[in-house]
Amino acid sequence: MIGQSGPSLPQLKKASLAELVELAEDIRHKIIETCLKTGGHLGASLGPVELAIALHRVFDSPAEPIIWDVGHQAYAHKLLTGRWDRFSTLRQTGGISGFLSHDESEHDVFGAGHSSTALSAALGFAATRASSQGWTVAVVGDGGLTAGLALEALNNIRAVSVGPLLTVLNDNQMSIAPNVGAIPAILASGEARDFFSHFGFDYVGPIDGHRIDVLLGTLEGIKRGYAGRPILLHIHTQKGKGYAPAEERPSTFHGVGPLQSKVTPGAPTPLHSFSDEFGNALCRLAEEDPRIVAISAAMPEGTGLTEFSRRFPTRFFDVGIAEPHAVTFAAGLAAAGYRPVVAIYSTFLQRALDSIIHDVAIQRLPVIFAIDRAGLVGADGPTHHGAFDLSYLGGVPGLELTAPSCLNDVEALLRQGLASGAPFALRYPRGTGPQDLAGDWIGSGKNLRRLKTVRSPKIQVVALGMVTPKVLKAVEEVDPKGTQISVWNVLSAKPIPVELTEALNADTQSKLIILEEGAIRGGFGEALLHELNPRTSRPVLLGYPDRFIPHGAIPDLEKSIGLGSREIADRLRQELAGAGKS
Known about the structure:
CATH class of the largest domain: Alpha Beta
Oligomer: single chain
Number of strands: 18
Number of helices: 23
Structural class: alpha/beta
Number of domains: 3
CATH superfamily of the largest domain: Thiamin diphosphate (ThDP)-binding fold, Pyr/PP domains
Strand content: 15-25%
């Protein structure tokens, strides 16, 4: 039943059970084949394949909206809704998204990249259809139920008049890592019926989420027997179903990079990542200070905390997908005399901004924020780029905000933060960087380096954090003799080193170029300009433009916004040419 462009929904609704079972296997093969080439959320999408088939067979999408929690459960949904022939472009520059996007398909009725939004969104859809016979469907993972947003939606359901509303609980006992806390225990104990009935649901299940015949019979029965109350269907699936490595190691294969087809003999071993450097440094510091504890929001492996959790199990806390709670929990620990380190991706820390301000900063509590995946993350796209932390944290009084420029900076900044006795953040990118940078430290702390010094330079370049290696490469290409461009490397975005502002104010004639891997609006560059005297020529701010940056390979994205080393070099040449004419 699969043509060149894949299965169609009309074909799906007419297919026999045997054809649907065969289709599930074809979809799994397509997902595995594609993810091993392009990278993607492999394990997360293999589990709900039969569910996607059954939902699209029984319900009339998009007229009856199917709202998926997080996008990475929905690869089968994408393949069933007209994207089969484009699936090979998954997460590639100009290709289809790894998450849900209404711009991509009318069947993606609500965009999703972060967890736990489906219940709230579905309740909104269903509230507009209170007098309709059409169904609204939400698909929620058991891990997503640990988030406050999902619990807020559960609490609100009884208070809202809705049309037919079905919530499918896709229970695989996992988020990215194994689930933690009371809700997974409730689901596993047989108490789920009582739990959800208190929220106003008619509970059905649990059933085998890999049996298409059982799914179809149950969904059709739910439609026939609808009694006017929201329904929760509890299904059990296996994360990584159909791919043995993902079944055996579901956390590791939650998401994968492209599979290397061959390894070059004698190739150098890659440097470890910033996440690895952070985790190793935190372990060393924890040996020295028993007050140090670490907190993860369901991502100990991704944030480099696996070794810490093994070596210091009583000082490690995985709170589940609950970023605001992670921050306020850390605030409580800090108020009680501990030194909590909260490791969360930049994009997910956005969800905890109120807790950062209200519970940490106002009380001046010594909580350390290790902000992973700051900057562009590539294939995961606009829902996951760490574009905004410099802007949303830069305005928080009393919070120090730093950015390492090489791997060796990570431990130094961690030590600085722990010694500060105040709220402190360090932001670092996905992947690796140079082990060290050669330069002269300026001032009493290690927050400012002078990397290239020129007397009466035509251009002064100020680079924050991990944009610095690209800047150095560009400067060495454009000014190989080192006679025209000075380079400053800033590690402290807030407070801005006074030595930097004094040096720049002492030379207002040179062209000033400020670079950062974050949004220009509200970012480091704007903050620095606020501290400076007027200059003879307009400063140049290079960073992320005022738009959402799509998914794609990081070099392609950097080129598109002028932040690749070649594009930086071109801009330096342009400014040097302009300086020569003035």
